[in-house]
Amino acid sequence: xxxxxxxxxxxxxxxxxxxxxxxxxxxxxxxxxxxxxxxxxxxxxxxxxxxxxxxxxxxxxxxxxxxxxxxxxxxxxxxxxxxxxxxxxxxxxxxxxxxxxxxxxxxxxxxxxxxxxxxxxxxxxxxxxxxxxxxxxxxxxxxxxxxxxxxxxxxxxxxxxxxxxxxxxxxxxxxxxxxxxxxxxxxxxxxxxxxxxxxxxxxxxxxxxxxxxxxxxxxxxxxxxxxxxxxxxxxxxxxxxxxxxxxxxxxxxxxxxxxxxxxxxxxxxxxxxxx
Amino acid sequence: xxxxxxxxxxxxxxxxxxxxxxxxxxxxxxxxxxxxxxxxxxxxxxxxxxxxxxxxxxxxxxxxxxxxxxxxxxxxxxxxxxxxxxxxxxxxxxxxxxxxxxxxxxxxxxxxxxxxxxxxxxxxxxxxxxxxxxxxxxxxxxxxxxxxxxxxxxxxxxxxxxxxxxxxxxxxxxxxxxxxxxxxxxxxxxxxxxxxxxxxxxxxxxxxxxxxxxxxxxxxxxxxxxxxxxxxxxxxxxxxxxxxxxxxxxxxxxxxxxxxxxxxxxxxxxxxxxxxxxxxxxxxxxxxxxxxxxxxxxxxxxxxxxxxxxxxxxxxxxxxxxxxxxxxxxxxxxxxxxxxxxxxxxxxxxxxxxxxxxxxxxxxxxxxxxxxxxxxxxxxxxxxxxxxxxxxxxxxxxxxxxxxxxxxxxxxxxxxxxxxxxxxxxxxxxxxxxxxxxxxxxxxxxxxxxxxxxxxxxxxxxxxxxxxxxxxxxxxxxxxxxxxxxxxxxxxxxxxxxxxxxxxxxxxxxxxxxxxxxxxxxxxxxxxxxx
Amino acid sequence: xxxxxxxxxxxxxxxxxxxxxxxxxxxxxxxxxxxxxxxxxxxxxxxxxxxxxxxxxxxxxxxxxxxxxxxxxxxxxxxxxxxxxxxxxxxxxxxxxxxxxxxxxxxxxxxxxxxxxxxxxxxxxxxxxxxxxxxxxxxxxxxxxxxxxxxxxxxxxxxxxxxxxxxxxxxxxxxxxxxxxxxxxxxxxxxxxxxxxxxxxxxxxxxxxxxxxxxxxxxxxxxxxxxxxxxxxxxxxxxxxxxxxxxxxxxxxxxxxxxxxxxxxxxxxxxxxxxxxxxxxxxxxxxxxxxxxxxxxxxxxxxxxxxxxxxxxxxxxxxxxxxxxxxxxxxxxxxxxxxxxxxxxxxxxxxxxxxxxxxxxxxxxxxxxxxxxxxxx
Lengths: 275, 531, 377
Fold this sequence. Notes:
The complex is a heterotrimer of chains A (275), B (531) and C (377).
Chain A: H1 15-34, H2 40-67, H3 74-114, H4 145-168, H5 172-199, H6 207-239, H7 249-274
Chain B: H1 3-6, H2 17-21, H3 26-54, H4 65-100, H5 108-127, H6 146-149, H7 152-181, H8 194-225, H9 239-256, H10 259-273, H11 280-293, H12 309-321, H13 323-337, H14 346-369, H15 371-377, H16 381-411, H17 417-444, H18 458-487
Helix pairs in contact in B: 3-4, 3-5, 3-18, 4-5, 4-7, 4-16, 5-7, 7-8, 8-9, 8-10, 8-11, 10-13, 10-14, 10-16, 11-13, 13-14, 14-16, 14-17, 16-17, 16-18, 17-18
Chain C: H1 9-15, H2 33-66, H3 82-111, E1 118-125, E2 128-133, E3 138-142, H4 148-153, E4 169-172, E5 177-183, E6 188-192, E7 197-201, E8 207-211, E9 217-223, E10 235-241, H5 243-269, H6 274-288, H7 290-293, H8 311-314, H9 317-326, H10 342-353, H11 369-375
Parallel strand pairs in C: 1-5, 4-10
Antiparallel strand pairs in C: 1-2, 2-3, 5-8, 6-7, 6-9, 9-10
Helix pairs in contact in C: 2-3, 5-11, 6-10, 10-11
């Protein structure tokens, strides 16, 4: 008989393999969809659903382990470190797109202006749809909906912190109210973003401006959605009586993620909308 | 709740395929990684055999240009993402917990997922040979606009890279957290075994740059299908922007593939010199400075893309600077050998060959760092020679050395020393016959990635092909030796290498399924994790 | 490199191009000042590397021999030596500074494209080079002239197999030639080793380079950036001639342009027979189209469409002409209107419409040069 380790060792699990299968199905479906094969969207859907099942099953298992007290102490510390480095990897993902934005603005477009023999009359500047584009377009103004959205996300950052204080001081109503407000603000943000997309006078095809605008705001929106889902799950768990003042890694992780999404928006607002 | 119920995972684990599919054990997962790597090594190696067969003599004989480009592209992608990186992660899985006295990795289930994502990605990559238009043929560097022109396989490669990137990021986070949080009490960062240090830094590099690769291939995907203009001048984009973003990933990636090799060599040399590693602290600082500098040198892959003089000069200086910490490592290895009591078992032979040959790769790297010289050599066989000295003679030889070094611990059996030595000499000699003439080809003006060449390049190409065939065939001997060792052989005992000092040698061989369930105690005067 | 007399035979092999003239093991003999400076810089760096290699590995092999266990050597116990470690960090830095200095000078020299005597615009296409003498408006397209059949036979025969072109770039000796480079489809790279020039041609952007050839001669190079299937088959040939010869060549070319234009003009007025068009068309097809679409017309499934049975080839004439004339953006299909004369385009379209299993009904089976010329206005 082996002495059990104080560090929790999970039993064998099929969920990871299910997750791989789901991603393989989703990716294959996407490939087929791009190749305009009929089965593509169905395979994507199947892969996506399987992924949801996997996440439900896997996280459900982790929640049970957490409730059973297996994830305390050193394990809890591992989880915290893990989340920090995961968020760092997300930061670097966005950094790639921001780098594209800066490169295009400060290097590519000025270079194109010097290539007058290829692009006669191109003046550059920002925003631009590039020298091959003849039609004019109206860029997104910063001081309308985007400014409102900035306020909304900043408030949601405050409300999630307020909920966290509630948790630390054992005031359950404050946690619930704070989380509810945060998720609600997130949804309002997404609604306004959707409205902005529909009203936009340009598209993702509108040269480098359209490409960087929609890719950056689009991936940010996807992260807000994910963050809102995470916070909703946390809200559900709070209602189910989970978490204590000194054991609430999942709550902390979701709120860190939310703050990360907040910070990305501030950068977006500065560099995509204002400047 | 009693302890046995909490730790139900300890009572039993499934057998047969389910053992491997559902494993949460770092040793099983390490084994999976290593087998995956070996199979991809053989597949990608076979592609290289086809390449060398076509280049055996001038004229097109076996392979048409389209297929030739598929072979070079897939050889590169599979070797990098399928063979070398997973091999090092396999070592990390097996060795990091054993060397720091941890019961397992920090996130055993996530560890399983990191591995099982790889076969999914490999499915996409390998099956792309059979789709209309064939596999990706735009080079492993995927430069647009050429990459935009390709067919279905190009999308499959993009998704495969996303999945492999996810695998690398999750694996790296797991390794970082394991090292930071699960060291046995008393083992400080500056007393960790050097292999663990190299992997900690490698893992940081992975977390920092794999997401950038993910974002840049996403841009390729949207440029291909969704009308964005990231890399299209007409829309205000720039093909060179891709190169900047790609190499911001790509250069640290080079170190991701060599730092763990440094770790393995730095473990093997002291063992067989029977003498502590010289300059441990400077070794750690050297690895760290190489890692930091790796973020500042990316544009040396683009010296002919038309960068302004100022940028060329900056990237030349930063690249040359990398020679300093790399030199420190080599000097330290030599100083470790100095006045040792040296013996030449197979792992040691591989490590010594790595030191010599990697240094040649380092020197050709220095030559390539000089912008004016690089202008002549960029995209020639000189570059092919350079990165094969670094990645084959540097990374692959270390991997083989590491396998021989730890196989006794993993299997409980000694490998066949005679076969190991034969494998070593065949590999080391054939590797030089294959790759050394490529320096001359490049200097004389042969571009890389061409299916046919002018007759003045014929002699050295034939030499490289013959060397390549021997090199390829020798690896079958490697496969045989490894299998033979797994199936039997002399009992290894706890510590078959008298000079070995790290914690894994305090365990029985083969290492038990669950090890260090209670953290081991270190000697109060221990040095660098040596028990 | 004859200036340095190496004492080691292996070093001789590494550094002396003359020693093994048949097996080229070094950079080709330089033909420009820049190429010579690069050659010397490379030799310098190589020698430094060789020296360091000896300094590091002689002690190592000495230790491997003298301090081996088999000889009964007992291990010492030292683990570090600060003075030594500082020394081998600082000394390499000094050596590197010594290498960086000449390299920096040379970079600035290579980047100095000012004060040029003439400018040539180089455009990379899949898979041919186009040169335009910007000062006189002279334009020529340079294709590899090694026959496809010779390559496929697997037995190279030509003296300059794969390194020969139908129309080389001709430049005068002694003049500073500025190149402005671009591409129309994917990235190519214009490289002539003897001139010390390698510069990527990036679609949509202009990049610059320069060279000044000392003595007359023919210099060969190849595209250095992977550009698709024909990457190995787009060589570069530069012929440097005396300024007098250059002037004569240019006058001849200008006259030739006039003659060609007149012939082309005449061709527009002329009605060719289908046999004439088919004969010319087959040549044009094999030179320009067969790389992708194959001489069998079957293409490469999934990558390059078949011409045999193609809907465009067998469909309305105008759509077919449009595809050949304007190309298909985002693919390797070039806009041949810019690369081929009208009669060649007419011939190749006629050839495609009447070859393999394609039998387009008259009168749509024949395209005359006049129909192509009409598109140019």
